Amino acid sequence: MAKYNTVFFDLDGTVIDSGEGVSNSVLYALKKFGINEIKEKALKFIGPPLAHSFKEFYGFDDEKATLGIKIYREYYREKGIFECYVYEGIESLLKGLKANGYKVVLCTSKPEEYAHKILNHFDIMKYFDFACGATMDEKTRATKDEVMKYAFETSGAKKEATIMVGDRMFDINSANKFGIDSIGVTFGYGSREELENAGATYVFDSANEIEKLLI
């Protein structure tokens, strides 16, 4: 579609299904605080920054959230980071976008260092012009809005020609804040209702539908 020339992608729940690695890391961290949780509830951590989730879901203060992140990463950097897989149709979509001249940019709340490792592990970094994420301390670029601002600055993308693809309201809310169109995907961790209520321009159930719109 000639209207767009740049596509921003969320990572967790959009490019990769990271549920196994994230939930295992969350359960590992919570157990250190004496909290025994079920895996289904740990999946709520996919999408928002970790500090936000520890505070929002378990009432951690700043100091405790910082410690929670540190413990989470003890598991994540050794095992959890690669307990994930690329969603069906995503590599084909990325390949098609590049072949048709799109600028492709990763825009994730995951630390940029980890995002690069994951993209390289699955050999899909080659489809991205830029991979933008949070800082490791989650104090700089700690929110999706801050990461998106950084992605625009880094990529030089024009807002009127950019569309965001993500699976949670955080992705759609940031897209709306920056005045860009968005695609909410239901194969991740947000429901169609969540995405529609957030004001997604489009809501799709598969990567193939995105491909039909853009290519």
Entry keywords:
six-stranded parallel sheet; Rossmann fold; DNA polymerase, domain 1; 16% strand; alpha/beta; 215 residues; single chain; two-stranded antiparallel sheet; 2 domains
DSSP helix fraction: 40-55%
Averaged pLDDT, please? 96
- What is the terminal-to-terminal distance? 6 Å
Tell me the number of strands: 8
**What is the number of independent domains?**
2
Major sheet attributes: 6 strands, parallel
- The percent range for strand residues is 15-25%
Remind me, CATH topology of the largest domain? Answer: Rossmann fold
Order of helices and strands: EEHHHHEHEHEHEHEHEH
Structural class: alpha/beta
- Across the major sheet, the strand order is 5-4-1-6-7-8
- Helix tally equals 10
Q: What is the CATH homologous superfamily assignment of the largest domain?
A: HAD superfamily/HAD-like
Which geometry do the CA atoms define? Answer: globular
As a whole number of angstroms, the C-alpha radius of gyration is 16 Å
> In the CATH classification, which architecture of the largest domain applies?
3-Layer(aba) Sandwich
Which stretches are poorly predicted, pLDDT < 50 over at least 5 residues?
none
Please tell me about this protein's structure.
- It is globular, with a radius of gyration of 16 Å.
- With 215 residues, the chain is α/β, with parallel strands linked by helices.
- The longest helix has 15 residues, at 62-76.
- The strands form two sheets. A six-stranded parallel β-sheet has the order 5-4-1-6-7-8, sandwiched between helices. It has a two-stranded antiparallel sheet with strand order 2-3.
- It is built from ten helices and eight strands.
- It has two domains: 6-17 and 85-214, Rossmann fold, CATH 3.40.50.1000; 19-82, DNA polymerase, domain 1, CATH 1.10.150.
